[in-house]
Amino acid sequence: MTTIKQILCDHKWAIFLALFAAVAVMTPQVYFRIEHRNDGVYQGIELLPDSPRSALTREVIDGHPRVANVYYKDGKDGPYLWQPLQPMVVGYMGKVLSLDINDTFLLSRFVLTFTSFALVYIFVLLISGSRLVALSGSSVLLLADSLLSYAGVSKILRGMSPDSFLRIASPVNPAMIFIPFFAFLIFFWLFYKKRNWGYGVASAIVLGLNFYNYFYSWTWLFAFGGILVLIYLIQKKWREVARLSGVFIGGLMVGIPYFMNLYRAMQYPTYAEVSARFGVVSSHAPHFVGFAILGALVIFLFGFPRGDREKYFFGLALLLTPFITQNQQIITGKIMQSAHFHWFFNKPLAFIFALAVVFHLLARWIQRAQNPRMEFYKKVLGVAIIAVSVLTGAFTQADSYVRDSRDGGQIAINRQRYGPVMKWLSENAPKEAVVFGNDETSHLTVIYTPLNVFYHRVAMNSLTATKDRLLNVLFTIYRLRGVGAKDAQEIFFAERGFIAWNLYGIYYRELLGSYEAIPDEKIEEAVKLYKETLSVPTHTWLHDVWSKYEVEYAVWDRKTDPLWNLERYPFLKEAAVFGNMAIYKFSP
Predict the structure, then answer these.
(1) Which 8-state DSSP code applies to residue 134?
(2) Confidence band, pLDDT 50/70/90 cuts, at residue 1
(3) CA 180-183-184 angle, 5° bins
(4) Which helix (H) or strand (E) element contains residue 335?
(5) In angstroms, what is the C-alpha Rg of the chain?
(6) Are the beta carbons of 529 and 509 closer than 8 angstroms?
């Protein structure tokens, strides 16, 4: 008990800052309820940004922990593409305590943020040996990571929030990226230094869990392991090579079910198409790693202490890893979304090591000056970094709440009109029923109800999302808008970005730089196919398509989509009306 008390006392500021970060993350969601519950605005729709992880978590709560097909009714038992560990952790957290979806996310925002802060703090402490550096580094990464980019600094200087709420505030991600990632680095470091196989086994298990958590974390960590082992191979330290390799072999053993699932997924006829929609592009062209990594590596090589050779090689391997992950396509021929490596691993680790070197050089300068009073200036720097981080975090949350950002301000208030619709569907529609609605309706349906959807803006990343299915969904939207043969060409070309996203995902953004860069012949192809369907009257075509995909309900947002006129179709019967929102029951 005395040891625990001593640890808590020694790291009280880390605990305080972790609690502050957790409270800062959950406060807007709590305050929104308090502010608008009394004025009648609040209808149960909360500040949940546009993240697939929200729907994945709901899928776990609804009894589908494989999250194989989140949006469609079919394919629930197939292989998954989105790793299930993240939504399982959050979903089961809520299920154990019998919480609804809003309170589940609220709890997770507190628990995951606190845990992320603690793990980043522990890792920086192990690397730097300084509590001040650890406090500074973890504060920046969780509360002010936006300031590590020119755009973020520019916005702050103009008095604007550098982001739409803190990145760590997004449900599930990136907190559930950081937790297994930094947990592995901590256990692996302790095994690396202390040669205790208890830590080795723990690091192998956590490494294996990364397979089920996030694609970019396990690929990054195995690249890191390969570089570290290579360093010892060059030195012909065979025992160290065997010892370190054992952890990664153990991680692969834990990941066997993941690879079996991946093999099953690759057997699907749609796998190649879906991979492209995820942004996988064929190329062997090298990529520049970025000035942040290059700068951090130079700082490390010239300033990181070399007295502890093991620590030096460990840090060197971490900073060399981005050169591999950013350029793996030279060998594999497949470019992935390399920005994910940059956001969550490259930039944070570059900052951590740069910060550690700066404080090390300051400490060495103070020691050479033989003036202990100069230690005060090092503390001032650390306190200033922490204070700026805390203020940035608080400002980001507050300004995002009131500003019409992606999820704050009037946008969050306007979203409340969907609350009664979600409640009615949850209470009246059979579980797993299929609902058709516009973009916002579908987005909220898969979060706030146990239902599936006919259309969703991310559904193209499902293995059951065939090209025909996506075309039927797209053509449904244009049919309801009354787009005819004469104006199809003009409208399709004017909305080429929308068509690119709904048929090809982020493929053309990754390949050519933007959604609008989709080749003209792809738009021409869509126009031709659409015109061919117009030989069948809209009411007949809609009836046949919705019957095929088992649509049972249609939600008409009369304010957003006034041209739909769902009341004109004989197979739709009005079931409920809430202001400008109307729910129709489909009768095949």
Answers:
(1) H
(2) low
(3) 85
(4) strand 334-335
(5) 26
(6) no
